[in-house]
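ok so for the tutorial part 2 we go from a plain amino acid sequence to predicted structure tokens. step 1 is just haveing the sequence, like this:
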Amino acid sequence: MVKVCIVEDEADQAQLLKNYIEHYSSESGEEFHITCLPDGIDLVDEYKSQFDIILLDIQMKHLDGMAAAQKVRAIDQDVIIIFITSTVRYAVQGYSVDALGYVLKPVSFIQLQQLFDKALARIRQKRDHVYIRVSVGDSQLKIDCENIFYIESSRNNVILHCRYEEYVTLGPLKKFDEMLEGHGFAKCHNAYLVNLSHVEGVKKEEVILSSGATVPISRARKKGFMASLLEYS
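step 2 — the prediction. this is what the tokens look like for a chain of 233 residues:
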């Protein structure tokens, strides 16, 4: 089931979008769970990456859609954002939050259908991905494991070295080792857990990753790591 959130302060517009999604559901055979919220502030308050698609009105009273999208994107890199707007003048800003597109008012079913076709294709592609949830500060983040290069133990914390940034969360590393068992990760060192899909090569004392980073490989872990890498390949 695909979870959709409509964030729209005009009740008639929100109902129209809901009706369109229900019609799309009957045509596509895809099931949707629809949540309606009246303002961007209601979306970002205690957001927990609970939606697959967000239809977001840009002009709202308390927190506009662009500001809400920026807050959501800081927490959730994968949710699909579609803006609802009466003008395309926000298009350039939309790139900064990786918006899938825009639905122009007055909204037509054809507009929504075309964007939902793209959204569902993206969702189906990502359903095979492995995600983990981690606590970073006061936030709960949903991270696609494909974007993790390696995880490093640092005292009582672990550092997730990802494609776009690094995240620091509470350890121990053992917790992540157990969580990611069977998902293409292996220890090359007691303090390093590596995503095998990003391994470019192994030298005598280090592992070379596709990001350009290198991490140490210990003598005690090398045999097991190389076996895991061979099996993964």
